[in-house]
Each structure stands twice: as structure tokens, then as C-alpha cells.
Q: What sequence folds into this?
């Protein structure tokens, strides 16, 4: 497969929850937290609850993949042992460790993106 083939296969994202749930992303639960101590878990039949829980929140952490939840030991349900489905591959930038604002970070990322026509 050529690199350009990978660039041409896009899935349209209409709403932010499409990153976690669609017809192929139904197994397991995603984890959501605001403090990295207490997690809430949402499955594909709880999208409206997920939206309501995150509405107007400035800081939320959402797992990029889905897990089988051990309801007796929820804190450890994000372990690789409980991984149920890989939904996304992401890069955690943590721009605050470099003293950058979100806008500065977005500008830096944009400068690194190759123009599709230059391939």
C-alpha cells in the first residue's frame, strides 16, 4: 500500500462523539475523567449521557480506546488487560509542559502538516 492510499481513506466525522462511537466502534466502554482519579464509563448505547456529562466542561480526559469494565475494580479497568477495542490512535501533546497555549500549539502542528499536493 502506498502512503498516498492511506491519505485518501477518510471517515467523515460529524460530531465529536464519532471519534469513539460508530457502526464499527461498539465494543466495550470508554473512560472519562476530570481528575484522573474517578472515572465514568460509557458504552455505545450511552452517547447522549456522555454528551450531557461533558457539556460546558473545560477539562475532561477521555480514553482513546475502549475497555471491558471490571465493575468491582473500576480504577484498574483502563489497563491493557482490559483493552476491548482500539478505536483511535492519538498523540498526547501535553503542550502545557512547554508553556505553550492551545493556539500556539495548533499553529505549530499546522506548520508540520504536509500539503496533500506535495506528495
A:
Amino acid at each position: 500500500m502506498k502512503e498516498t492510499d492511506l491519505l485518501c481513506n477518510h471517515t467523515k466525522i460529524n460530531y465529536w462523539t464519532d471519534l469513539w462511537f460508530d457502526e464499527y466502534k461498539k465494543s466495550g466502554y470508554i473512560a472519562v475523567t476530570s481528575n484522573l482519579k474517578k472515572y465514568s464509563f460509557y458504552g455505545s448505547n450511552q452517547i447522549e449521557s456522555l454528551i450531557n456529562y461533558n457539556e460546558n466542561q473545560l477539562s475532561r480526559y477521555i480514553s482513546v480506546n475502549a475497555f471491558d469494565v471490571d465493575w468491582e475494580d473500576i480504577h484498574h479497568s483502563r489497563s491493557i488487560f482490559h483493552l476491548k477495542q482500539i478505536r483511535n490512535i492519538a498523540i498526547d501533546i501535553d503542550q502545557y509542559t512547554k508553556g505553550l497555549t492551545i493556539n500556539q500549539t495548533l499553529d505549530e502542528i499546522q506548520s508540520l502538516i504536509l500539503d496533500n499536493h506535495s506528495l
